[in-house]
Amino acid sequence: MKKKFLIVLLIMVLAVSMAACGNGGNDDGGGAADDNGDVSAEPLTVGFIYIGAVNDGGYTQAQHAGTMAAKDYFGDQVNTIWLEGIDDTNKQAATDAAKQMIDQGAKVIVGTSFGFGEALNEMANSGEYDDITFLHFSGSYINDTNLGNYFGAMEEPRYLSGIIAGMQTKSNKLGYVAAYPYTEVQIGINAFALGAQSVNPDAEVKVVYINSWYDPAKEKEAAEALLSQGCDVITQHADTVGPQLAAAGEGKFAIGYNLDNSAVEGLEDAFLTAPVWNHDIFLIPTIQGIIDGTWTPESYYGTMADGYVDLAPLTKNVDADAAAKVDEIMSEIKAGEFPIFTGPIKDNEGNERVAEGKTLNRAEIWETDYLVEGVTSGE
Amino acid sequence: MVSFLAAAVIAATPLLFATLGELITEKSGSLNLGVEGMMLMGAVIGFSAAYGTGNPGIALLGAFVAGGAGALLFAIVTVSLQGNQVVTGLTLTIFGTGFASFVGDKMIGLSVPASVLEFFSARKIPILGDIPFIGPVLFRHDVFVYLGYAMVIALSIYLYRTRAGLNMRAVGENTAAADASGIAITRHKYAHIIVGGGLCGLGGAYLGLVTVPIWQADVVTGRGWIAVALVIFASWNPTKAFLGAFLFGALSILGLRLQSMGIHISQYLVDLFPYAATIIIVIISTHKNRKEDLPPGNLSEPYFRESR
Question: Which residue of A has its CA nearest to B221?
Fold first, then answer.
């Protein structure tokens, strides 16, 4: 009898803990409606599905910063809710999260990780949720009525960060801690390498994949492996501060990702800059369009000109001539006069991938399945 | 090569503490699968103690107490209430993960104070550190690593050379017989579960204080499970646990090092190696059937005197 009670108790503890893992939140705003005659009496509720925690110090934190900026912009007009720590390899988890927020009144569902796409696509096309607008980050799902997607030209700030790395390296070896070998990551590596080679033809990029988006110790160990091979600038396409710590520990330079870590203790003399996302640049006009009823599904691809992707302010560790070069190229990129992927581009096996004079468009960029010349990797 | 092996020792240290902790827990007859959770509890409390006081001793003590507190919960449920050890251990992992997220919530991005960093900076041991090859690999690390070595020696002596260790092994091997010979079963189980949890907490603290001295959510990322496998790999022997932790630590960074040299290797294969090696060891030891390589006789069986 006691045993049975215990088992029930434990299962309850388990269930409560699981619920606690899938943390939710809301801004507590929009509760009291103004009675000063506003046209929109009821605020629009926007629900966000996050893969990580809103203060993970990286990817989700950057997403959430955009959410909060949008919320501040709209004030009482928009109510934001979110669910954290949703497994993006589990379609059911994403579907449940979306349904839960729709039950809470959400009219817009934003899936902020690649893996949520399938769930959103299925729901948007099911006919059951025609009054809900679905937005998906980093995927390509779209329909004619209520599903759109958005992403950004991260290759632009990556290229600029490559220029800095190429000019500051003494060993001509640059280290790149990367999550998984797939298109998005490969585009970033290629852009970084091309940027570095544009100012330093001898620059070589060494890539280590860690097979994880988030593992502080492993990311640091990967960076240490790169440092032991003579790399003196470390950059990353993974979520934590680990690689930057490793670089700082050896007195070398680090380029982050997602967040400006220039103020973090211990990184003062190492941190150069970081390619960053400004999600509010997409969210604010999009939500405005939904409120006004003018929104139609689109495949948004934000650029540096829009401000959707950007380079964090360069720190004191960046040499003046590197900063000047970045300024020069950045203004060309913003003016739309500097396509990143322009031929001739060879891959690291010597095959020509982009012919002389040809420039890749967005769709072609997203067919990348190779690393450019001068990049070595273990995969 | 030397730098690789020295880095392997660093990667092995959190595994070593957690493995030793789980080892004495299992030796006393309890299977606590909450290692991952206790490591995270130790990491977060160790970090906040370091951040709050700037005192490395208090940080270590905090980590030990936090891991031990998690283990105490496990002991209450499994020893006193006779709960299922596997379920309770898994629950403890989930609890510890949530606890660390909750407590660490506001600390993300904060750094370990300079006084603590200084205390845990690498120091060469005189004479030993000068031995060619072995010196730079083993004896030019931080004090936390040396504490790990000391724990291996202390545990080996305790388990195989003392009366208390013999009693504790008796509890794990045959609880009823130990009870009949007058050993205080409950007290032994509690003590070893709690100390084991404390060691797991120290393993987590190494990751949070030394490996990555800026607080990040979930610093442990699965190393607790490797430690559980390591206990089996080491066939419940502290010295083998040291060798196993070193081997697994080396393997965990081997793939990264090879990649950085441009050598093609799938990180997926490297990542699964610890588990594959454990399975192979289990098959070999079961096949050989040598008494000292087998798990404690009454491992994970609740003991209730009246139900004998």
Answer: A215
